[in-house]
Amino acid sequence: MIREGRAAVLNEAGKDAEIIDITLDPPGPGEVLVKLHSSGVCHTDLTVKNLGGNGMQFPIVLGHEGAGTIEEVGEGVSHLKPGDPVVIAYRAPCEQCPACRRGDPRHCYMALRPKPRIHRKSDGALCSQVLRCGTFATHTVVHSKAAIKMPAEMPLDKACLIACGVVTGVGAAMNTSPVFPGARVAVIGCGGVGLSVIQGAKLMHASRIIAVDVNPTKLQWAKDFGATDVVNAREVDPVQRVRELTDDGWDGGVEFAYEATGIPVCTEQAVKMLSYGGTATTIGFPAADDAVNLNLGDMATGVYWNKAALHVCHCGDALPSHDFPLLAQLYLEGKLELDRMITQEIELGDVEAAFHKMEEGNVIRSVIRF
């Protein structure tokens, strides 16, 4: 049966998102139709808009941080049924790529995707879905393995945050570059992802968590979420200050530094903040022509003499079928803070206003309620 719904869609490059009527084909084999309950507004969706679709074909249904309930299952789907609460993952392992075949699904090359099932009602045009999800919509169709069942007691307006920002940040500290107990950590950028890195480092029992930002509001958030120290990079040299705070007679520095801004110089700073043998992790979404310059020879902060490592984090290198239920359980046990991650609840028609608020820098997450 054809379903009808509404969605926030980019119809062409350079234009604001529009709320339009959509139709949805029934889910095909291995797919599910999800009725959305909530969707977080992530910076990646704003980036897709600002980059003119980022190579995707228009029209584009925005959104990739969604939670809802299964409304219909396609042929061959036996692990889900109508009514099941789910969070939508954008990186469900494909099971076919070299990484999956060698037993390393956390580094899957190509996530599973549904066939195009969403149409612009006005002309029948097939819609692309941001990161194979398209959650700024009343309904969407995704691969069944990308719909991760949640505990019945998990509130879906909180669960949706797990889908991207939270699993990316927490996963950076747990999976990409696992923090060891007692480690010193620096986090550059204290938006939703950076605050989740702080939470991940706390869960991994870091002894010191130094938050770096230029926004005093975000630095206060960082303290609230577990940072032991804060550095305002607008007022001081952040590299020098982090190394001063961690001075231990061995040139100072942190064992782990995480960049959560997408700004190239912040990756350079993360590397320079490291102690001997430390690991920097870049998380932020870069532009195509972004580049960094890394010093090799400086005796204190150079990559060679400091034996520095640089990792890249994609979605926390998550295995959604394992990590999403784990994060939900940590929330239910009071060990993961999600409630205070939500700055405001909005309606579907407020997406552009939420984008503007995000650009102002004083919002952690806006959550669309359907």
The CATH topology of the largest domain corresponds to Quinone Oxidoreductase, Chain A, domain 1
Oligomer: single chain
- Overall number of domains: 2
Structural class assignment: alpha/beta
* First and last CA, distance: 22 Å
Radius of gyration, in Å, reads 21 Å
Strand proportion, as a percent range, falls in 25-35%
What is the CATH class designation of the largest domain? Alpha Beta
Characterise the protein shown here.
It comes from uncultured Armatimonadetes bacterium. Its cofactor is Zn(2+). It holds the Pfam family ADH_zinc_N. The chain has 370 residues and is of the alpha/beta class. It folds into two domains: 3-163 and 337-369, Medium-chain alcohol dehydrogenases, catalytic domain (Quinone Oxidoreductase, Chain A, domain 1); 169-314, NAD(P)-binding Rossmann-like Domain (Rossmann fold, 3-Layer(aba) Sandwich). The protein is 24% helix and 26% strand. The chain has helices spanning 43-50, 98-101, 156-159, 165-176, 192-203, 216-224, 238-245, 264-272, 320-332, 351-360, and strands at residues 3-10, 18-24, 31-41, 60-61, 66-73, 85-88, 118-120, 128-129, 139-143, 147-149, 184-188, 208-213, 229-232, 254-259, 274-282, 309-312, 342-346, 365-369. Helix 4 packs across helix 5. The longest helix is centred in the last third of the chain and has 13 residues, at 320-332. The chain is globular, with a radius of gyration of 21 Å.
